[in-house]
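[Automated response] Your request has been received and processed.

Submitted sequence:
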Amino acid sequence: MNQLIKDSVVKLAENLQLPERVLNVEDLPWVPFDEGEEVSCYFKPLRFDLATGTWIYLFKIKSNQVLTRHRHTGGSVIGYNIQGQWRYEGRNWIAKPGSFIFEPPGDIHTLISEDEEVITLFILGGSLQYFDNDNVVVGQDDIYTVLKKYRDYCNEMGIEVREDLVY
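Generated structure:
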């Protein structure tokens, strides 16, 4: 392959690839994840990949909380616990700072935070389905509803929406 073709291939690849993104998470707001008068968990969005349905965010849970039973669909969940401790009801492990968590799709579980506030980095795709005590789906979140929560919160609070998070 002559040099002109090599240079053209490199230039084409450079033009098609996504640009680098570097964020200071301190510049992003903590957005209420749940609704109602007493919010128990918040998120900081880091990326919304609309092409794959993958969303990446920091998830903050107040201490001593029990989150709604839920199931992840559409892909695995990757987590890295940064602060605090949490577990799933009925499981024999506890996520402590530094814990890596892999969840296969389809598993139904209830997250319980321990005695201090929790912050975990999550990478997930697909949707979250919420269940009542009779195993009936009572709600759902996905990349689009979470992106809407972020945009609505920013608009309500007068915060600039970071559209560069959507790529």
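Summary generated for your ticket: The domain at 27-165 is CATH 2.60.120.10 (Jelly Rolls). Helices lie at 3-16, 143-157.
If you did not submit this request, please reply to this message.
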